[in-house]
Design goal:
Layout lengths: L41 H12 L10 H9 L5 H9 L2 H13 L11 H8 L1 H18 L5 H24 L4 H10 L2 H17 L5 H22 L4 H9 L8 H19 L6 H6 L1 H6 L3 H8 L2 H11 L3
Length: 314
């Protein structure tokens, strides 16, 4: 599929974002508090579980720029995408800077945003725009900025490696990039919601308590988020079961599973695995990655690190 990033071609109904609203009256005195009195996060877990069970969980609004990118769909062109980007001066400058510094940049200077979009490609620019529009919201988790930053940087690295793996396997890179970007979306949203519920209920939680809540609820929260945002079915599948590839999205789940191991190295500043280790890794074996393709992936290390740092410094 050419031109529009897969996100723009999903063919789903227009995005429906939920508005902020207070807890329903019948949730202000939760009825399902765990029996254990020493469970510090029992109240928060109960409130969160109730909101998910009753369908009252409030999904964060997708930023306006990201909404418009989603709604462009398959009829997007350079001019339409440029019009969306121009509304954000910082995003405009980023796209122009990337176009001007591209390794195989045009011989003539890039003097307009439309020219930059046409040069870089709709797929690439749409993913950049979506990522940068979403990034501030993913980093805005009061009291947990460092943890939120770490989660988002890992998701960015997973997206970049997912794209590289897709290219090496001659598959759709735009969809795989978005799968990598959003595969852990439930963790950041769950962290933010747990913080808000703890603050509202006057519950003092430790870092390990938040980790426990995130681990317990992030997949269910992810399903609410990506479904409400109108994401393609493959992204919904990856966000809820990337670790267990199956069904129609088996390939995308496998891509993200493999990309995560590379992202772990990138996020930690560690060396990538050797070709021998890749050949023995179950996630990479699942993809059927040939030795030549695996070698080309490892050669992308420096480029992936540079692009990751452009999005979000360590």
């Amino acid at each position: 599929m050419d031109g529009a990033v897969y996100l723009l071609c999903s063919g789903r109904d227009p995005l429906k974002s939920l508005t902020e609203r207070p807890l329903p009256e019948d949730m202000r005195n939760p009825r399902h508090v765990p029996a254990s009195e020493d469970d510090r996060c029992g109240l928060v877990r109960s409130l969160l579980a109730q909101s998910l069970e009753r369908g009252t969980f409030v999904v964060p609004r997708l930023p306006e720029a990201a909404v418009r990118i989603v709604e462009l769909r398959e009829n997007a062109n350079a001019q339409q995408l440029s019009a969306v980007i121009k509304a954000d001066p910082a995003l405009t400058m980023y796209i122009l800077r990337i176009a001007a510094s591209a390794p195989n940049r045009a011989a003539m200077p890039i003097v307009s945003l439309t020219h930059a979009v046409a040069w870089l490609g709709l797929d690439e620019v749409a993913n950049m725009a979506f990522t940068l529009a979403l990034q501030p919201k993913m980093l805005d988790v009061p009291g947990h900025q460092r943890k939120a930053r770490r989660l988002w940087r890992h998701s960015l690295a997973s997206a970049l490696w997912s794209r590289q793996l897709a290219l090496a396997l001659e598959r759709e890179p735009g969809l795989c990039y978005l799968c990598g970007l959003l595969h852990d979306i439930g963790k950041a949203v769950t962290l933010r919601e747990a913080h808000e519920l703890a603050r509202w209920s006057g519950t003092l939680l430790e870092s390990s308590d938040y980790d426990r809540i995130v681990d317990e609820f992030h997949r269910e929260v992810a399903a609410c988020v990506v479904t409400t945002w109108g994401m393609p079915e493959a992204i919904v599948a990856v966000a809820t079961r990337w670790g267990a590839p199956c069904g129609a999205a088996r390939f995308e789940c496998g891509i993200v599973n493999a990309a995560r191991s590379l992202a772990d190295c990138t996020a930690q500043g560690a060396a990538l695995p050797t070709l021998q280790r890749l050949a023995e890794d179950a996630a990479f074996c699942e993809l059927g990655l040939r030795a030549e393709a695996a070698a080309s992936i490892l050669e992308c290390d420096r480029a992936v690190n540079a692009e990751l740092d452009r999005y979000l410094s360590p």
